[in-house]
Amino acid sequence: MQEKVVLVTGANRGIGFEVCRQLLKLDHKVILTSRNADKGMDAVSKLENEGLKPDFVKLDMTEDSDVSGALRYVHERYDRLDVLVNNAGIFIDRDREAINIDPEVIKRTLDVNFFGVLKVTQKFIPLMKKNKFGHIINISSNLGALSKMAGNQPAYRISKTALNALTLILAAELKGSNIMVNAMSPGWVRTDMGGYNANRSVEKGAETIVWLASQERGFASGRFFMDKKPIEW
After folding, report:
1. Average pLDDT for residues 131-145, to the nearest whole number?
2. Close Cβ partners of 86 (under 8 Å, ≥ 6 residues apart)
3. Would you call 73 a catalytic residue per the annotation?
4. Into how many domains does the chain fold?
5. What is the pTM of this model?
6. Residue among 73, 78, 156, 196 flagged as catalytic
């Protein structure tokens, strides 16, 4: 397995943190990011206490200056990015219904879960093109799958459906460039976001992301995965 430079957004806790841990154990170069610098450095310290050596950069995806700063840091330190894991997201409408939700809640959710991902991805694609390789992994959800669409949580569902559409659009636009773009669902995971009644461990939630990040050129693009297998959009 070739060593890769990997950037993981929203990685100070939960699935993102576990992805960093697993990839570091596979000897990849991992850049842990967090919108809060103190929380990010706390996460770095926890990994260092395990004998691992993550890198860190502050990254609030809604702040253009942070996005530009992260690109500058990666370019100057590594001059490449092999894998971008778009993990950061918010879920603030857990018990809401579309018939009465405040549209501002949907806007706030889209700002992070869709537009934030779009901004970060747009910034890093040229660096991937320069090195003729890359893998963009969008952390989506079954709640955003049109094939399984139901009621409640409209902001989160819509944001993940939009993210799935972006995955397919980018995969088509980047065809032939050796840059793969895929989405995945980690399932219902025991994290601060998923809650501690969830039926999956954080290790299981991270497993497919780590598997995707370890793939080489020629792997599938424009697919939606769960448990290392394609699922319906």
Report:
1. 97
2. 9, 117, 120, 121, 136, 137, 138, 139, 163
3. no
4. 1
5. 0.96
6. 156
